[in-house]
Design brief:
The protein is mostly helical. It is built from 8 helices and 2 strands. A hairpin with a 4-residue loop joins strand 1 and strand 2.
């Protein structure tokens, strides 16, 4: 919840995987178990859903939550970049203002990252965006290493390790996390330059 005071605060979730089942522990409300149960109901007729697969599905659902957050940051960085260009191009502002209706001018004056935004507002937006980027960095930072270690154990064929293609699935999640972390690094550099 982006409006919550706990937004981007970490939530611990523990998953214990047995050969015949999974136990998960979490100490605050989280949609992940319900999402995975829904996914199980949808897929149970098409594939064998082992406890290993369920643990993968929980990890995958947690990872998928980050994609829209990172997309929002990308959109915000693009908006800030455009607003800074407009802020430093007074001739373009006058031309743009002539083509806008009165309603559009009033909405622009509302501080939504548009034409009439002041330098102070822009600094606030840059700071807020950078804070979100760093919060996501903090949350994603060690996940790739954890998934890498888990995938490695899955591929070592230990007696207690998963016996299916879960290691490959986990490798895909790791790649996804590395890509998201790289995107955040790029956005953080852009916001710092701006």
């Amino acid at each position: 919840d982006m409006n919550s005071e706990d937004f981007l605060e970490p939530v611990n979730m523990y998953v214990v995987v047995f050969r015949e089942g999974v136990l998960s522990f979490h100490f605050s409300m989280t949609p992940h178990p319900a999402n995975v149960r829904r996914r199980i109901r949808q897929l149970k007729d098409y594939m064998i859903l082992s406890s290993d697969w369920i643990s993968y599905a929980i990890i995958d659902d947690i990872t998928d939550v980050f994609a829209p957050l990172i997309q929002n940051i990308e959109d915000e960085v693009d908006d800030i970049d455009d607003a800074i260009l407009r802020l430093h191009s007074p001739g373009a502002d006058d031309k743009d203002n002539r083509n806008l209706s009165d309603n559009e001018k009033r909405s622009d004056a509302g501080g939504n990252g548009t034409i009439s935004e002041s330098g102070g507002d822009m600094l606030r937006r840059v700071g807020d965006c950078r804070k979100k980027v760093m919060g996501l960095y903090r949350l994603l930072g060690n996940k790739a290493d954890v998934i890498k270690g888990f995938a490695k154990r899955c591929n070592e064929h230990w007696d207690v390790a998963p016996r299916s293609e879960i290691g490959l699935y986990l490798g895909d999640i790791q790649d996804h996390i590395v890509t998201m972390t790289g995107n955040l690094s790029h956005y953080e550099k852009l916001v710092t330059i701006l």
